[in-house]
Amino acid sequence: MTLPRIAFLGPGAIAAEHARAFRQLGCPLAAVMGPDAEAAAQFAKRHAVARSTDTVADIVDADDVDAVVVASPSGEHAGQALAALRGGKHVLCEIPLGLSLAEVTAAAEAAGDRIAMACHTQRYLPVVSALRARVVAGEFEPISMSITSAIYRRSNVGWTGERRDWADDIIWHHTTHAVDTSLWLLDDGIESVQALAGPADRETGRPLDLALALRTRTGRLATIAMSYNAIRPVSEVSVFGRSETARISNWQPSHAAASEPNDLLGKAAFAQAQAFLSAIAQRPGSWPSFRDVLPTYRVIQQVYDQIRQESSPA
């Protein structure tokens, strides 16, 4: 198989994880785009990318690119994914796929015969994929679960500690991760969604705390607590089964020795890149297409609508 030539829209921290994964897999890294030409050029130098540009069209319409990783700010994802698909490229798009269900649906419908894969990366964390395999095999029957996910986002500083020029969104970004993991592990569709938000942040105008309750069609429950107010990160998942409880702390089994979070992310990014290449090569295997993850975005749209209605003046 001839490996696809990979390009990146966005030269940030998560694009660097993707670049390392695809380089390890032997893919040619063809190009990177960033609105700051100097930042894009520096990314290209660090990650051995052939060329850099500050124009999206130089990527999506290019003859030297087969597949595009969309790793730009969240508000750009849907439009850039659509542009890449219309340019005949395979697409691996970071979470969230869009900032509305309508955006995500439009991108899903545009895929045609191209691979349009969602970076719902928590599915590829080893402990999550192992538990999912047990659920699918009937070895673990989930009844309910809880997720607590908390990081510090009172200012526009990303997980690498560098300040960004765009504001993160607890609903469309990190809550999408949590909802997708819940649906993935409960293995059921959602029937009911209830959401509450804390006060809006003075800098971004967006809530920094969120509480969700989800009920599936068969009565399974998921409770999700999200916060951007954590001085130290917190990540705890408990899945309560018929005969045992699975506990995941910092994306590891609760009994496991601690690992560096970046190492776990690197492993997940590598497995995700492998799945993307397998999908392009039409090898057997499962991977989350844009269409496959629409149920997650239907829940997120409900959450967004409930929070907006709650915060609107009577």
UniProtKB/TrEMBL annotation:
GO terms for molecular function: nucleotide binding; oxidoreductase activity. It comes from the Bacteria. Residues 5-112 form the Gfo/Idh/MocA-like oxidoreductase N-terminal domain. This is Gfo/Idh/MocA family oxidoreductase. It comes from Actinacidiphila oryziradicis. Residues 131-235 form the 4-carboxy-2-hydroxymuconate-6-semialdehyde dehydrogenase-like C-terminal domain. The keyword Signal does not apply. SUPFAM superfamilies: Glyceraldehyde-3-phosphate dehydrogenase-like, C-terminal domain, NAD(P)-binding Rossmann-fold domains. Keywords: Oxidoreductase.
